Amino acid sequence: MKSTEEQQNKKEIIRKKMIERQSEARTVRKIVFIVTITLFLFVGGAILGGFLYVTSALKPVDPDSDKTTPVEIPIGSSVTSIANILESENIIKDAKIFKYYIKFKNESGFQAGQYDLSPSMTLDQIIESLKTGKVMRDVAFKMTVPEGLWLEDIAGIIAKEVDLTQEEVFETLNDPEFISKMMESYPFLLTDDILNEAVKYPLEGYLFPATYSFYEKEQTVESIVREMLSKTSDVLLGYQGLMEERQLTVHETLTMASLIEEEATELVDRHAISSVFYNRMEIGMALQTDPTVAYAIGEHKERTLYEHTEVDSPYNTYQVPGLPPGPIANAGVMSIEAALNPEETGYLYFLATPEGQVLFSETLQEHNAKKAEHITNQN
């Protein structure tokens, strides 16, 4: 009898445990269901919220607005800076959405200027305005700075626009306090390299050659220089990856570019000249480029004589190996690109002919033969 009762008790215990497990399983399933639904609603809500936000950001800030706001887009502004300006002026709702929209539509070619924009404008209307350059005001004046100029030459160009003498502008460009102020504003561009005691003028080579449009007649040396430094910074930011790849600093890039700029002609392949300089530095050979001698002397020379190459200066690449302490002129985009993309050659010499051609050689014997043919025989 006991055995039968024990068996029945065990069966009852097992039955109760099974009921408990079934109950627990139902509870777990309920919890899992609730959690799943909650996560689904949360993720769905986040997606829906994001979708609604993006959709809203793509619409005008105020479709019914009839007011306009003057918005200035400085020279050299990037897409990011333009988007930030538009958001700060309440012309668009979100700078990031605007930037992604521009990338999605593959838009480019935005122009600097003073625009008359409204919160009622669509993103496409804003983009079109920025591309066509419909500005509120006429250009007060334009200032053109050619490639290959020394800083003191640029000072003369600026002086004409600010009613100062060339000497006064040049003094400002080399004032330590002014330079420090510019370095704070352009940390990527102006590094401690320009403060090297061997550098002749800190801002030499940093004022980009271009035509600058100004919408206010009254300008200062600082306002003009800021436009030029902004342009240089924007140009070099586009080559940041290449500079890192070649392990070149901004200062070294502009220095090499300035040598190429001063040696190049309209017909020459700057990338080949660049290769000569790199090839020479690789084997420890002096660059021996005449424009550095002229810069060391402080006077442009039609011909560089032997006595000129004896000048005692860190810029004299006949006497000092490697790059000079800093740029010797302002270089344009073509020379910057050549400085970062030298042609693969075995050239160690190049010769500029009176006709404007540049002849390249791998050996001194070959170089001297070309020199005798094109230079010596004509004297």
TrEMBL record:
It holds the Pfam family YceG. The record marks 263 as: Important for catalytic activity. This is Endolytic murein transglycosylase. It catalyses: a peptidoglycan chain = a peptidoglycan chain with N-acetyl-1,6-anhydromuramyl-[peptide] at the reducing end + a peptidoglycan chain with N-acetylglucosamine at the non-reducing end. Gene3D superfamilies: Classic Zinc Finger (3.30.160.60), Endolytic murein transglycosylase (3.30.1490.480). It is found in: Cell membrane. InterPro entries: MLTG-like. Keywords: Cell membrane, Cell wall biogenesis/degradation, Lyase, Membrane, Transmembrane, Transmembrane helix. The chain crosses the membrane at residues 31-54. It comes from Bacillus carboniphilus.
